[in-house]
Amino acid sequence: MAVDAVAISAPSFASFDILDRTEKRSVHNVLLDAMFAKSRFLEVLGSGISIPGPRHEWISLAAPVQTVTADGSGSNTVDGGATNKVLSLSTADTAALRVGSLLMNASRATPIGTYKRNEILMVTEMTSTTTVTCARDYGNFAGGAGNGSTVHGASDVYRIIGQNTQEGSVASLDPNTYSADTILENFSAINTMKMQLTGSQKARAMAVVDSEVERQWQRELLKLKNQRVSQFLYGTNSANTTAASTSIGSDTILRTSKGILDFMVDNIVAANALVDYATTTLTYKSINDLFINLFNNGADPSQDFKIVVPAVSKDVIASWDADLVRTTLDNQRVGREITVFKSTMGFVAEVIADPMVSKTDVFIIDPSKIIPCTFRPYDKQEWGKGTSAPNGDDMWYQRTIGEETLMMLDPGTSHAAMTYLTWI
User: What does DSSP assign to residue 367?
Assistant: First the structure.
């Protein structure tokens, strides 16, 4: 009995895979494992989760309110003198305070007293929905005369350093800490890879055919790997969610999936932005500054952050000064590769180069909060010459298809990027 050179005849639901020597249609895990071997970025994201439909939604919790911002209006008088007491804020920021809230200026130093300590203000009255009255120099740093600093700015940011309550307090006087849930969503995108042989190619010696199919598989796998990396980093979908929704079930509207950068830009926290679009030169300080912002946004230095860069940027990192780069002398090697970045805040991040990252960009990601979501696992189908589904063509075909999207948690507070580096 002759054995088919490419595919052993099998029931319509299965075929023999010459690469992993099994009869099956689903190749999802085989493909992902092969991609992980070729892309460290995909490997750290992992295989993710399964989702029940082409539209995926999740709740994004906002960062806890730690600061309030003066609105810069004429109603704000704290910046006008040492004894002025009115702080004017947005309605949302005012609602985050209560009588007894302690505030310290986070925009500038406000030195008072012999030891030049920063002034502390205490909220003494919720005057309106947009103003509070404060006691100046609550810490009594300047002799108890109620004289505060004269250097406050009209639009300064104030850190909430205390929200204490008095004995016997009632819950109804507490600030309303509820905030409406932010629902994020993404749509699945359909990816494919295809191989084919002519009848003449297929009729050649089995070893030759096996080699040809494997070369095609490696080539198409690399193409699919690059497509997935690019989709996860740079994918975007219509800002018009109605248009995006109508792509579900349509064979005329292309459905695309949103990526990491799009989520970050759409969810920027203006008070402590984590997308640096001003810096044009990659330096230790430029990356470290983003880690400082992450730290101030509540990121935990013990988290397993990754820095994803193009090859040219990894080359730049390897060339940084010796006081910032630790290397081990090896008499039998020349050159060095820097694989780990350590920030002054204690963050330790693996440096990963990927050819799909633009030369303008550097990403700092927390992989535990970036989850690939599979709607349809990758599976394969064969048809044409020598299969159980001939169609008259003098051609053998194999097509692999899958559908997936990306879920990104806390996109505005837990990840960072540089997007305007000069090409080198």
Answer: G
pLDDT digits (tens, 9 = 90+) for 364-403: 999 999 999 999 999 999 999 988 899 999 999 999 999 9
Contact in structure between 133 and 127 (CB atoms under 8 Å): yes
160 dihedral zone (left: phi>0; alpha: psi -120 to 50; beta): beta
- Rounded Cα distance, 208 and 202, in Å: 9
Helix (H) or strand (E) holding 103: strand 101-105
Domain boundaries, given as residue ranges, for the chain: 16-60+188-418, 67-173
In CATH, the number for domain 16-60+188-418 is 3.90.1690
- Residue 29 burial (CB count, 10 A): 12
- Amino acid 219 reads R
For 360, other C-beta atoms within 10 Å of its C-beta total: 15
Q: What is the DSSP letter of 373?
A: E
Dihedral of alpha carbons 158, 164, 169, 174, sign = positive
Q: Rounded CA gap, 369 and 49, in Å?
A: 12
Asked if 154 and 70 count as a contact pair (C-beta separation under 8 A), the reply is yes
Q: Tell me the percentage of the chain whose pLDDT exceeds 90.
A: 63
Greatest Cα-to-Cα distance within the chain, rounded to the nearest angstrom? 103
Q: 258: how many CB neighbours lie within 10 A of its CB?
A: 26
DSSP character for 157?
A: E
Contact, 310 vs 43, CB < 8 A? no
pLDDT, tens digit, 9 for 90 and up, residues 27-46:
999 999 999 999 999 999 99
